[in-house]
From TrEMBL:
Full protein name: Transcriptional regulator
PANTHER family, per database record: DNA-BIDING PHAGE PROTEIN, TRACRIPTIONAL REGULATORY PROTEIN-RELATED-RELATED
CDD domains tied to this protein: HTH_XRE
Record key words, sorted: DNA-binding
Residue ranges annotated for the HTH cro/C1-type domain, each copy included: 6-60
InterPro entries named in the record: Cro/C1-type_HTH (IPR001387), Lambda_DNA-bd_dom_sf (IPR010982)
Coiled-coil region(s): none
Molecular function (Gene Ontology), one example: DNA binding
One family name in Pfam for this protein: HTH_3
Lineage: Bacteria, Bacillati, Bacillota, Bacilli, Lactobacillales
Length: 67
């Protein structure tokens, strides 16, 4: 499973899902789906999200083992 910190990073910047979506160039629904683990982003989208936040991709996404 790929965990993410998108919601936390958005909150730190006081960004809505809509604002992040516009900055990244995707729909708000795409951001919601990634945040809620319903959709694993492509590598390109993952890097784009990290770049938008101004952090390394590993600061946004982390692979964790499922029990």
């Amino acid at each position: 499973m790929i965990k993410n910190r998108i919601k936390v990073l958005r909150a730190e910047r006081d960004w809505t899902q809509e604002e992040l979506a516009k900055r990244v160039g995707v729909s708000r629904q795409a951001i919601i789906s990634v945040e809620k683990y319903k959709y694993t982003p492509s590598l390109e989208l993952a890097f784009q999200i990290a770049e938008t936040f101004g952090v390394d991709i590993t600061d946004v996404f982390e692979k964790v083992k499922e029990d």
